[in-house]
Recover the amino acids of this structure.
């Protein structure tokens, strides 16, 4: 876990900085510098682009990681890398042509409830292309276990760019239409910078040679498109469907709630960047013992860290909403529902990395497709009835079912589970603190209330985790920190 711990910590720092900038943007700048309708439009535009991204990328960002270590000669490796650069164009070009020819039809369909959506269809397509090739170039460096710069670009760069544009909007340097155009430019610049870094790590060399196992590579890419689409759909389709069924400003309220809950996923996102190539390596080498050890340790460590963040959010959420405009407080139950699903995501550890790099991903993809269909149907039923809470409930149900099936599947195929006795102890600790602390607050200003409550949570939760030695890795890091101080 040495390289995992080292790069995960660096990625964790950059990811939290990114989320800190994102928090300022989402909770304060967007809500004060931009109308609710346009904030909702930004949320819809980015969510739609993220839903399209796996298709645009042709699954290359996962395919590159899975097969890279299997090529042992220089010529075969360069041929493989050239293929990875060209494959996304097989979808990008036809989709762009279809978008050009069918602009009126697509725009009219998406804007049945909110007319302004039609003006930003091309923004969605261009951002999706930028996101797709960014992930390809990020995967290019992941296989060299160089994830820190890529994670910085993934988590911080575009958020700082959005912050700069928001201040430019506030000081009337640009208008709102120019803001939307410039936001697209930010994502394109991010992609280009990632490309330059990737090529500095390993420069592509034009080699035209038959690639061994090409059929398997293409089959995996096609199927991983489904996997990526499933993950993106589960994360973002609710926002897209909200824009279809209810006034677009509600997407802004929902986006704030989702952002708050998404902080729980930060440790998982940071660790996943290095878990993915390591899991692929262990699978290719058939080192099941190392894979199982990585599975259990990543699960426990992520559960402990994510559980701490879960408690900070859930126990302070009422006070957090006191600091934001009253309209946004309708997302309270959205935060609670999505927080539960994010915590369950964390306890799976390297589950996704194992599945998507194994030969058994096809069955999981089939199950995922069925669950996405169920999620879309649930959204269609629940959003008109319960609004934002209906979208959150549909998402929560889909994620809980999908994750449970994945855990069972890995256990059945690989005979390994991520859970241990300490997992149960951590779960009980989180439940006791959550139920014991939700219904009381200090009678002070919300900021002071959040500060004092967070100190108590840190002391109680951190103290119990440390004293009971629930994780050797976390205790080892804490001991090193204590010695330095």
């Amino acid at each position: 876990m040495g390289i995992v711990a080292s790069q995960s910590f660096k990625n964790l720092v950059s990811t939290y900085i990114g989320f800190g900038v994102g928090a300022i943007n989402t909770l304060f700048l967007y809500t004060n510098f931009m109308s609710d309708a346009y904030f909702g439009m930004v949320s819809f535009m980015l969510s739609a682009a993220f839903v399209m991204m796996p298709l645009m990328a042709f699954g290359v960002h996962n395919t590159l990681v899975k097969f890279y270590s299997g090529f042992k000669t220089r010529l075969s490796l360069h041929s493989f890398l050239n293929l990875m650069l060209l494959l996304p164009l097989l979808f990008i070009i036809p989709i762009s042509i279809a978008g050009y020819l069918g602009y009126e039809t697509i725009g009219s369909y998406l804007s049945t409830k909110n007319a302004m959506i039609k003006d930003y269809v091309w923004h969605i397509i261009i951002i999706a292309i930028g996101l797709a090739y960014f992930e390809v170039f990020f995967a290019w460096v992941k296989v060299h276990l160089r994830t820190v710069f890529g994670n910085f670009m993934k988590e911080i760069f575009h958020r700082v760019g959005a912050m700069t544009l928001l201040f430019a909007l506030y000081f009337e340097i640009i208008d709102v239409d120019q803001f939307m155009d410039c936001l697209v430019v930010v994502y394109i610049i991010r992609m280009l910078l990632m490309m330059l870094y990737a090529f500095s790590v390993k420069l592509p060399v034009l080699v035209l040679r038959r690639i061994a196992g090409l059929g398997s590579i293409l089959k995996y890419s096609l199927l991983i498109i489904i996997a990526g689409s499933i993950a993106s759909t589960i994360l973002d389709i609710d926002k897209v469907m909200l824009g279809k069924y209810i006034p677009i400003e509600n997407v802004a309220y929902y986006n704030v709630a989702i952002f708050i809950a998404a902080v729980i996923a930060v440790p998982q996102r940071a660790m996943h960047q290095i878990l993915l190539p390591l899991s692929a390596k262990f699978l290719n080498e058939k080192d099941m013992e190392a894979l199982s050890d990585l599975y259990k340790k990543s699960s426990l460590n992520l559960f402990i860290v994510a559980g701490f963040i879960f408690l900070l959010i859930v126990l302070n959420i009422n006070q957090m909403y006191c600091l934001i405009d009253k309209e946004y407080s309708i997302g309270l139950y959205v935060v609670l529902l999505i927080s539960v699903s994010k915590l369950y995501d964390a306890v799976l550890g390297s589950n996704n990395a194992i599945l998507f790099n194994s030969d058994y991903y096809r069955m999981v993809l089939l199950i995922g497709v069925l669950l996405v269909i169920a999620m879309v149907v649930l959204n269609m039923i629940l959003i008109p009835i319960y609004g934002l809470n209906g979208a959150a409930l549909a998402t929560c149900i889909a994620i809980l079912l999908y994750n449970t099936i994945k855990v069972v599947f890995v256990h059945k195929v690989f005979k390994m589970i991520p859970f241990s006795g300490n997992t149960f102890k951590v779960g009980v600790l989180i439940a006791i603190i959550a139920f014991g602390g939700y219904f009381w607050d200090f009678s002070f200003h919300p900021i002071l209330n959040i500060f004092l409550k967070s100190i108590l949570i840190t002391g109680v939760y951190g103290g119990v985790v440390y004293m009971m030695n629930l994780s050797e890795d976390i205790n080892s890091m804490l001991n090193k920190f204590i010695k330095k101080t």
